[in-house]
């Protein structure tokens, strides 16, 4: 349970939170902000790092191929290796479009 005076959910600060295929073996995630203020708040808070992604998704760091804070677009992007190729037997999300949901509830400390 969050205290609305001291934290905000990532979903309330970001303009776009999405995931999609990045080829057959990877899923890429984009967290895009409308303004520099919210982007910098999240970027500097430490709430969204390679380590938090590993914890959130229950993966090892070696499954993250890229983690980028892209200042010109006010975006944080990361890419993970899939457990199995897109569309292969047992793949629960062929397009990788349903993998962003755990990011929505990340609590961001407010100043």
Structural commentary:
The chain is α+β, with helices and mostly antiparallel strands. It has a domain at 14-85: Alpha-Beta Plaits. It contains three helices and six strands, in the order E-H-E-E-H-H-E-E-E. It has a four-stranded antiparallel β-sheet, with no helix packed on it. A two-stranded antiparallel sheet has the order 1-6. Strand 2 and strand 3 form a beta hairpin. It is elongated.
Key phrases:
6 strands; 111 residues; four-stranded antiparallel β-sheet; 3 helices; alpha+beta; Alpha-Beta Plaits; two-stranded antiparallel ribbon; single chain
Describe the secondary structure blueprint for this structure.
Elements: E1 7-9, H1 10-13, E2 16-21, E3 26-32, H2 36-45, H3 50-57, E4 64-70, E5 75-81, E6 107-109
Antiparallel strand pairs: 1-6, 2-3, 3-5, 4-5
Alpha carbon gap, first and last residue: 19 Å
CATH architecture of the domain at 14-85: 2-Layer Sandwich
CATH topology of the domain at 14-85: Alpha-Beta Plaits
Strand content: 25-35%
The main pleated sheet reads as: 4 strands, antiparallel
Helix content: 10-25%
What's the shape?
Answer: elongated
What's the CATH C level of the domain at 14-85?
Answer: Alpha Beta
Query: How many DSSP E strands?
Result: 6
Radius of gyration: 14 Å
Determine the structural class based on helices, strands and strand pairing.
Answer: alpha+beta
Order of helices and strands: EHEEHHEEE
Neighbour order of strands in the largest sheet: 2-3-5-4
Low-confidence region ranges? none
**Total number of helices:** 3
Quick check: average pLDDT? 93
